[in-house]
Each structure stands twice: as structure tokens, then as C-alpha cells.
Design a protein that fits this description.
mainly beta; 10 helices; 50 strands; disordered N terminus; 6% helix; 969 residues; single chain
Length: 969
């Protein structure tokens, strides 16, 4: 097969090929699944008919995601497909994990706000090792009633994932593969050399200094540093699976290979993954079934230092001056030849020419191409083995016992060669070194459940009793460093060199093992499919907490009423089915490091006694807190599910999620001499929300249409902080200091700073802005400086005038999927977005006055009446226009993205049969086609982990075009 691939900025061309080989077909294969069996959902340790579910559970099936390619991370398939579930890209870098949040922010101190991941009953800390094609379905347990079965670990939501299993009486061989080439979809508008020199000269003049550049116009456009770092990038994937089975045994086996280059400096930004899976079940006797799942994944990756204003290719490309050349071919012609002649370790290109060094912008900023040469030979790797073995014993017709042993064994580490180098006067290395680190962690658990199910006339009852034991963090690690190797080439660097003992160093450590014991029970009852009840309780004991709080109880209850099943409900064509449901549950969060309640003696507090000889001393690391306990999150959920006009499915949920006793480290006076601040339960927080999901499906002869949309509203509010505090500082940024707070009465991580109310146009404006005593409110201001709101009315501008400038957490998230088919043609459209949040654009280094600007600075104040929104340029900045936090740095984070558009064509069956195939389908897909937003950074879809909304140069996502085929035999 010959394929021509067009390479151009902002496009990705991908060849995608899928083939399925079936040993046999059955007549029922063409029947819609919903006509064969009633849909069931996973509810944790069991399943339940969807029509009788009383909790808030969203489902994503394999059929929803099988044609949606993702960038190597399975979490992305959830984006925009479930109300109340926010999935936001942390980076476009290959292999980067997105941020997943279920119904808002639950904690602001205890670990991340990531949900609990459960794969085939195995609790895991992430799913980066999971192959998307192996996923059969996902269920998101969003409310307290549905998630309470997981107790102390469920406060941030639970996502259940089931992988594919073999099919009885059928063998299927399948291959999925694609190859692609990608590039960036958007670049920043940065100043060119002439514009840069003009702005720098103007800033100097405004500060009373002489201009730096004699003739800005002679510099032309200069260096486009973004052009130097962005490149086309290939990616490919190959997946092969075999499934089969009979009345006694079924199996599913898969193998996968994924390889992706980064669109930013692909030589040091890439990701490779190899995975294998084997699932099987065996009916040993009529009363005994055994089975297992096994998955192995190996990852090797390199990555640039993105979303960090303190260096790395992205930050350097944004901040470096465009007057510096990429490569210098004539040192004598440079304005500052000494930059290139004073160090033998300067980095050179393949032709022996030194890479350009900026005389104006230094510190961590460096020529990205030179920096790339110092990063070669660096990589991280991991090997993950996730497996379980289970046995299901049918004791009686109604009573089953199931026992499972689950575990995850992970090895990971990294290797880095640091050569001798000179990137700038502030960024050099005179000694080379080779570093290698390896870590291992083993976690395992065993769970046993006893399930009773029976139906008495119109009464349907299910009772679950369970017990679990869990061991965590059985781990160790070690690293080794060799210095002064006799080579400066990363390809030759090795630990086999015989070097001096003084140039060798190593370190090793053991993890702190913890364990948890659990007991849980659940009763599910319905009367005649009309009156529904679910009650759950879990009791967890954890070694993470002190003697006063080893154990915690987590109860939940939910009710439902299928009103449309009542005899009085009239048969009609408007509301075909109607169910009310509501529930309340209490969940926990114990995601803190081990033994934070305890006080350990640690070395490092050395002392002298009498003879002035230094002796090794030990001191307490922190303050003991035996009352430390897990966070508790209670959640009330009220909802309605309707089918309208036979083809519309509508669900509306309203909830209140209240977190209490939130864990966080507290600051203590320095004179206590503690190494670590102690942990305490310090705060409360609410998340109130509304979720709406609407689906439509109908066929008209050869034409079929289905559409699914979801919308979520979230109000997050901190309601209490320890000691009656009004706020505590949260995220900071460079010289601005704190830019966001945890503030009582406001959203998590709200931005705080000065409110700019205009620009002083002349001295008269400054003189007129006085307090009640007649003194100038901004005595350091000059014409062209920001005029700031005296928020507290005390007649001066200081941090007491900081006000809430906006939320970092989006208030609205939404997604829409449309599927259409006409005869052999099909169309899929998927869009998603968010709104109601602000983004802090922190792309420029504020402590480097000569750092480059975006072209927005061309609209600065240049004289009376020129603008009332942007201050004059200045390096000294006496009014602190740009060196104190204000709304100048904030932009709206609203966006709507056309995430995926796919058009397909299936050959007539008669044509497919000519080559022995049952189906041949061709399609073309566009991904990230267009984004509607007013944000001027690379991408409004940013998260930043648990520090939402701060853009420190996110690795941008690519626009993608995919060409593919699907063949089934």
C-alpha cells in the first residue's frame, strides 16, 4: 500500500488500519445489543440493571470509544462523554497524563484530587499502563451512594474499568494499527527582532536610560525561536488480539506497540509503550469458576521540561530575544564576541559552529538547540505487571462466594548523562556525570465476598458481604552517580568506566509499608421494579492514621421510584418512562504520605558540646498528632431519569458534596526547628452542582441518527479554615509572589490581586487620585502606569487591596457527540469545552527585563489617550505595573473545541465477500480541528494538576488528520 502524507504546520496525517478475523458468525450478530439483553452497569463488586440503578453512575462503553484515537493515554476517552467528569490535558507531550476530576475539587491538601481507579477489581494508582483497545467499558461512580462501597478511598470518585474477555463459541483475531505524522496547531504571536528592539529602547527611555539598539529597523525579523523547536512528529500503533472460548473456557489475549514522537524537539520528547494482556475464565465444575487477568506494560520515554517558566525549550523559545542567531558562523561579527570565546565547553552544531548565546536573556533560558544536545541520552522507563486470580464458588442456587488475590508490581527509573557544557554565563557545567536510578514497588490485596440473590414473587433481593486486606508501598529504591567520565559523548557514557572512588556516589532507601483492612456490606432491593433501595456500609482501618483514628465508618443509602411502572401511569407517547432517585453517602480520603501523624527522629541537627567537635545530632522531624484522621466527604444526590417521545433519554442530577476535616500541612514558627510542617485537619469545602445528560436515537429506513450531549454546572466554595483564618496563600508565580488563595467564601485556588481601573493618562490624573487626607494614593505612579482600586478605602495601595479576580475552577463543562449513518456512509462529530474560569498567563519571565513579549505589548500606553487598558513598558517598574499580581495577567478560559470529526464509508457486503471479509470500512478523521476561544496562550485546555489555571508554557496539543480502514473477516 502506497500512502502519500502531506506535512504542513498545524496538521497531522495518520494512516489507521483495523482488521478483525472471526472464525464464525451467528445469525444474532446483526441484532442491536439493546434488543438482546437489558443493559447492566458495574456498581462495584457486582452489576445491576441500569433501569434499577439508584446512584449517579455514568457509563462509557467500548462502542463509544473504539473509533476515537487518543494520544497514548486511556483517560482521554472520558473527555466530554460523562456529565460531571472533567478531563483536562496537562500537556501535549507524548505519554503525559491528563487531569481527571469527578464532581469538582474534593481536597486541597491530601494528595491529588484524582479519582480511585479500579481495573477488573484491582485498585491501581494510575491507568497509564492500560491499552485503550483492551477496554470493554468504564463506569464512573460519582455520588456518595454509589461510591461508598469503596469507603476511605472513594471521596474523589471511583472509575471502574472492565477489560475485554473471550466469547463462548467464537474465535476472533484482530489487528489494529496506525501510522501518523503531526505538528503544532498554534504558535504564539511574539515580537520579531525589530519590534523587540523598539520595545526595549522605549523601556529604557521611559526609565531615564539611553536606548540599547541604535537602529532597530536594521535587525529585520530576526530569529523565530518557536520555529526552531516545533517539528513534525511521527506516531504509530500496532495492536493484535485473539479471543475465543467454549462452554468450559474463554480467553482474551492482546499485544500492543505504541510509538509517538513529540511535536516539540522530538529528539528529546518521545514515548514508546509495549503491552501484553491475557484474560481467561474456566468453568472447572458446574459450581466452580476460576479465572485470571494479567497485563504487562513497558514504557520508555523522554520529555522536555514543559509548563515551567524556569527553563526548558518552550519557555526559552518564548522568552529569548529574537536578535540572537540560532548558529554563529562568524564570531567576530557578533556584537559581543566574548560570549563565544571564553569557554571551551560551548555547544556546537554538526558543522562545528557554536550555537547562538543571548547576551540579553540568560538565567535558565538558553538556545533550545544547544540545550537539546545536553539532554540526549536521558530517559525514564517503567515496567508494570498488574494481575489477579479469582475463584467463584456457587454454594447454592442463590448463594455465591468469590475470592480474589490482586496485585501490582512496578519497576521504574531513569538514566541521565550530563555532559560538560556552556550554554550561557548563568547555565554551564564543568563536570560530566552519569546517573541511574531504579525503584520497585509491590502492592497486593485479597478480597472475599459472599453474595445472596433471590426473587420472592415481586420482591428482588441481593445481599453482599465482603472483607478485604490491602498492603501498600512495599518498595525500595537506589541510585548511582559517576562523575568525570573520560568521554563527553552520551552514546559512549557507561558505568563500566574505571574511575576514581571519589567520583562515585550512591544512595538507597526503603519505603514505608502501610496496610488497610476493610469490611463492607450492601443490600439491593426492589419491589416489582417500582420501589428501589440500596444500602451500603464500609468500615476501613488504616495504618496511615494514629491510634485515636485507626478505624472509620462510611455508610450510604439510596432510593428510587420507577413511577412509570405504576398501574396509574398512563400509556402515552410523551413520557415513556420516568424514574426518581436520590441518595446520601459518606466517603473518605486518606491520600497523604505514610505515618504523617507520627514524630520521627531524623539526622541533620548536628551540634558541638564542650570540645567544639561537631557531632551527629537527631531531632524531631515534626509535631506528633495522634488525632489526625481522614477527610470525610458527604454527598446528597437527587435525580430523575426519563425517556421522552420514545427516542430521547434525559437524566438530571442535582448534588451537594461537602468535604470536612480536610487534611493539609500547617505552617509553624521557625524557632521550633522542625524539618517538616505538621499535618492537621484544617478545613471544609462544598461542591454544589447540576448535571444534565440528553441522548437521542432513531432510525428512518436507511438513515440512522444518534446524539448525546452533557452539561455540568459546578459551584465550589471553601467554607472553613483552621483557627478562623479568612484565607491561606496558595499558588505563587515568580516575582509576583502569591497569585491565588484558599479563601473562605470563594472557590478553590481563586486568583487574588489588584484590580486595575485604568491607566493614568497624565500627571493631573495622578494628582487627582488622593485619599481623604489629601495624600496621593499612588505616589510612585507616572503617566502611563496602571491606576489601581483602593479596595479597602484606606487611602493607599498595598496587599490589603487584593480582591478576588476570578475562579481557576471551571463552572461549566460540556460535551456533544453526534453519529449519523445513511446506507453505507457514517459520520461522527465530537465537541467539548468549558467556561466560567480564568487562566493566569505566566509565559514571560518577569525577573528578566529583557525577556521577549507577545505582540499584545504593541498596544501599550505610548501617550495621552493611546489606551486605557495596558500600561507603559518599563524595566525599573516603580509603580509595579508588571511585578505585582493584578487582573492584567488573567484571561477568560472559556473554549469550545471541535475535538473529532469522522466520515466513513463501508463497502457493500457483496464487495467485501470477494476477499472473504464481512466488512470493509474506510474513513477520514480530523482531531482538534478548531478551538473557539479568546485565550491568547497555546491552549485554553490546561489543568496544572491541583494548581488549576496557571499557564507556565504548556506543551500544545496537535491538530490531527487521520485516514484509515476497518476490515473484518
Amino acid at each position: 500500500m502506497n500512502v502519500k502524507i502531506s506535512r504542513s504546520l498545524g496538521m497531522v496525517a495518520v494512516l489507521y488500519f483495523t482488521a478483525n478475523f472471526s472464525a464464525q458468525n451467528t445469525a444474532n450478530d446483526t441484532l442491536p445489543k439493546e434488543n438482546q439483553i437489558e443493559e447492566v452497569v458495574m456498581i462495584g463488586y457486582g452489576t445491576q440493571k441500569k433501569s434499577n440503578v439508584t446512584g449517579a453512575i455514568s457509563s462509557v462503553k467500548a462502542s463509544d470509544i473504539e473509533n476515537a484515537p487518543v494520544a497514548g493515554r486511556p483517560e482521554q476517552v472520558l473527555q466530554g462523554r460523562a456529565a460531571g467528569v472533567s478531563v483536562v490535558s496537562n500537556s501535549g507531550q507524548p505519554g503525559a497524563a491528563p487531569t481527571v476530576r469527578v464532581r469538582g475539587i474534593t481536597s486541597f491538601g491530601a494528595g491529588s484530587n484524582d479519582p480511585l481507579w479500579v481495573v477488573d477489581g484491582i485498585v491501581v494508582d494510575n491507568i497509564g499502563w492500560l491499552n485503550q483497545s483492551d477496554i470493554e467499558g468504564m463506569e464512573i461512580l460519582k455520588d456518595g451512594a454509589s461510591a461508598a462501597i469503596y469507603g476511605v478511598s472513594a471521596a474523589k470518585g471511583v472509575i471502574l474499568i472492565t477489560t475485554k474477555k473471550g466469547a463462548k463459541g467464537r474465535m476472533n483475531l484482530s489487528y489494529n494499527g496506525f501510522f501518523g505524522v503531526g505538528s503544532a496547531s498554534r504558535k504564539l504571536d511574539l515580537l520579531n527582532a525589530t519590534q523587540y528592539a523598539t520595545i526595549m529602547n522605549e523601556a529604557n527611555v521611559n526609565d531615564g536610560h539611553a536606548p540599547t539598539f541604535a537602529n532597530p529597523g536594521s535587525l529585520g525579523t530576526g530569529t523565530d525561536w518557536q520555529k526552531q523547536i516545533f517539528n513534525s512528529a511521527q506516531r504509530q500503533s500496532h495492536e493484535f488480539s485473539i479471543t475465543g472460548g467454549n462452554d468450559k473456557s474463554t480467553f482474551y489475549t492482546s499485544f500492543g506497540y505504541y510509538d509517538q514522537e513529540g511535536i516539540v524537539m522530538r529528539n528529546i520528547s518521545n514515548y514508546k509503550r509495549i503491552n501484553a494482556r491475557f484474560n481467561s475464565t474456566h468453568k472447572v465444575f458446574d459450581f466452580l469458576t476460576i479465572g485470571q487477568t494479567f497485563a504487562y506494560t513497558h514504557v520508555k520515554a523522554q520529555g522536555i521540561n514543559d509548563n515551567n517558566e524556569f527553563g526548558g525549550p518552550l519557555s526559552s523559545a518564548i522568552n529569548l530575544d529574537p536578535t540572537t542567531p540560532v548558529v554563529v558562523t562568524d564570531i567576530a561579527s557578533q556584537p559581543f564576541p566574548s560570549d563565544y570565546t571564553n569557554n571551551a565547553n560551548i555547544i556546537r552544531d554538526p558543522n562545528g559552529n557554536p550555537y547562538g548565546i543571548s547576551h540579553w536573556v540568560s538565567k535558565e533560558m538558553s538556545n533550545p538547540l544547544a540545550f537539546q544536545e545536553t539532554q540526549r541520552g536521558r530517559y525514564r522507563w517503567s515496567d508494570d505487571i498488574v494481575a489477579n486470580v479469582f475463584g467463584d464458588l456457587k454454594i447454592t442456587k442463590h448463594l455465591n462466594f468469590k475470592s480474589s488475590v490482586n496485585g501490582k508490581l512496578a519497576y521504574w527509573g531513569n538514566q541521565a548523562f550530563t555532559p560538560q557544557s556552556y550554554l550561557s554565563s548563568a547555565n554551564s557545567n564543568n563536570t560530566n556525570s552519569l546517573f541511574r536510578e531504579i525503584q520497585r514497588k509491590f502492592e497486593w490485596n485479597t478480597e472475599n465476598t459472599l453474595t445472596y440473590q433471590n426473587r420472592f414473587e415481586k420482591h428482588n433481593l441481593s445481599v453482599l458481604l465482603g472483607q478485604g486486606y490491602y498492603e501498600y508501598n512495599i518498595s525500595y529504591g537506589q541510585n548511582t552517580t559517576y562523575k568525570n567520565l573520560p568521554t563527553n559523548d552520551w552514546q559512549e557514557a557507561s558505568f563500566n568506566f574505571d574511575i576514581a572512588a571519589s567520583d562515585k556516589s550512591s544512595n538507597a532507601w526503603d519505603g514505608k509499608q502501610t496496610h488497610k483492612a476493610s469490611y463492607f456490606a450492601r443490600v439491593v432491593y426492589d419491589y416489582d421494579n417500582r420501589y428501589l433501595f440500596t444500602g451500603t456500609v464500609r468500615r476501613d482501618g488504616s495504618s496511615k492514621f494514629g491510634r485515636n483514628n485507626h478505624w472509620g465508618n462510611f455508610p450510604a443509602m439510596s432510593l428510587g421510584w420507577n413511577i412509570s411502572n405504576e398501574s396509574f401511569w398512563p400509556q402515552n407517547n410523551v413520557v415513556n418512562s420516568f424514574k426518581l432517585r436520590g441518595g446520601y453517602g459518606v466517603l473518605g480520603n486518606d491520600a497523604i504520605a505514610d505515618f504523617q501523624y507520627a514524630n520521627f527522629l531524623v539526622s541533620g541537627s548536628n551540634y558541638t558540646f564542650g570540645d567544639n567537635i561537631i557531632r551527629v545530632g537527631y531531632a524531631p522531624s515534626t509535631l506528633e498528632n495522634p488525632d489526625l484522621k481522614w477527610e470525610r466527604t458527604s454527598q446528597l444526590n437527587i435525580a430523575a431519569d426519563l425517556k421522552i417521545f420514545k427516542n430521547f433519554d434525559l437524566s438530571v442530577d442535582v448534588y451537594r458534596k461537602k468535604s470536612t476535616d480536610i487534611l493539609r500541612q500547617v505552617e509553624v514558627p521557625g524557632y521550633l526547628g522542625l524539618i517538616n510542617n505538621p499535618w492537621r485537619n484544617i478545613g471544609d469545602m462544598n461542591n454544589d452542582g447540576v448535571e444534565v445528560s440528553l441522548g437521542y436515537k432513531k432510525n428512518w429506513g436507511d438513515f440512522g441518527l444518534s446524539a448525546n450531549g452533557n452539561f455540568s454546572y459546578l459551584k465550589n466554595e471553601i467554607t472553613r479554615l483552621e483557627g478562623g483564618k479568612d484565607y491561606v496563600n496558595f499558588a505563587s508565580f515568580q516575582t509576583l509572589g502569591t497569585v491565588s488563595r484558599l479563601q473562605v467564601g470563594q472557590s478553590y485556588g481563586s486568583f487574588y490581586g489588584f484590580q486595575n481601573i485604568g491607566v493614568f493618562q497624565n500627571q493631573a490624573d495622578i494628582d487627582a487620585y488622593r485619599n481623604s487626607n489629601g495624600a496621593l494614593i499612588q505616589p510612585n505612579a507616572r503617566p502611563g502606569d496602571f491606576k489601581r482600586l483602593d479596595a479597602n478605602g484606606d487611602g493607599k495601595i498595598d496587599e490589603n487591596d487584593y480582591i478576588n479576580l476570578g475562579n481557576s475552577v471551571p463552572k461549566y463543562t460540556f460535551g456533544f457527540t453526534l453519529n449519523m449513518n445513511y446506507k453505507n456512509f457514517d459520520l461522527m462529530v465530537f465537541a467539548q469545552g468549558q467556561a466560567g474560569n480564568k487562566i493566569f498567563q505566566g509565559l514571560r519571565r518577569l525577573d528578566i527585563p529583557e525577556a521577549n513579549y507577545q505582540t499584545a505589548i504593541l498596544d501599550r500606553w505610548t501617550g495621552e489617550g493611546s489606551t486605557n487598558t495596558m500600561a507603559r513598558v518599563t524595566k525599573d517598574d516603580p509603580n509595579q505595573n508588571y511585578t505585582r499580581m493584578s487582573d492584567y495577567y488573567l484571561q477568560k478560559g472559556d473554549y469550545l473545541r471541535l475535538k473529532l470529526v469522522q466520515v466513513g464509508y463501508s463497502l457493500p457486503k457483496e464487495a467485501a465477500k470477494t476477499i472473504g471479509a464481512s466488512k470493509i470500512r474506510f474513513y477520514v478523521t480530523g482531531e482538534n480541528l478548531v478551538t473557539f476561544t479568546k485565550y491568547t496562550g497555546y491552549d485554553p485546555e490546561i489543568a496544572g494538576g491541583d494548581t488549576f489555571g496557571i499557564d507556565r508554557a504548556y506543551y500544545p496539543q496537535a491538530r490531527t488528520f487521520i485516514f484509515g480502514a476497518n476490515v473484518q473477516f
